[in-house]
């Protein structure tokens, strides 16, 4: 992406702003923050709304600015399991390679099947939302491949 890795890290780390731009996110709240050396550990609640279905879940979010990673570990809510990781690698002074990994399974089989059918489109929309947010905040046109 045509933005510095540190800017993109900060954008993803700003969990409380997710409802402003992230599809299906109707709420986000940081419950606590704790500094652990150069890392910050947050407990955060996020509410996802999809049509008439709404779920809130809590995660532990580890911000590691030195490694340029943001990891999420599920604590409670509608999932059986959920982990994710963002990685931001500089690609020159004004660009970054961004990778995002997520593994999850809902407790509700019907919801899991529905999300499974829409997963690729949902992922595209979420990545696009972050790219658009970066463009709005940092003033450049994000081009996704």
Task: Describe this protein's structure.
This protein has a single domain, classed as START domain (Alpha-D-Glucose-1,6-Bisphosphate, Chain A, domain 4). It has 3 helices and 6 strands. It has helices spanning 5-13, 18-21, 109-138, and strands at 25-36, 39-50, 53-64, 69-76, 79-90, 96-106. A hairpin with a 5-residue loop joins strand 5 and strand 6. Helix 1 (5-13) packs across helix 3. It is globular, with a radius of gyration of 15 Å.
User: What spatial order of strands do you see in the largest sheet?
Assistant: 1-2-3-4-5-6
The coarse overall form would be globular
* Helix segment tally: 3
Give the topology string: H per helix, E per strand.
Answer: HHEEEEEEH
Structural class: alpha+beta
User: What integer is the average pLDDT?
Assistant: 89
**End-to-end distance, in Å?**
9 Å
What is the CATH third-level topology name? Alpha-D-Glucose-1,6-Bisphosphate, Chain A, domain 4
Uncertain parts: none
Helix content: 25-40%
In terms of DSSP E residues, the strand content is over 45%
Radius of gyration: 15 Å
CATH superfamily grouping: START domain
Number of domains: 1
- What is the CATH class? Alpha Beta
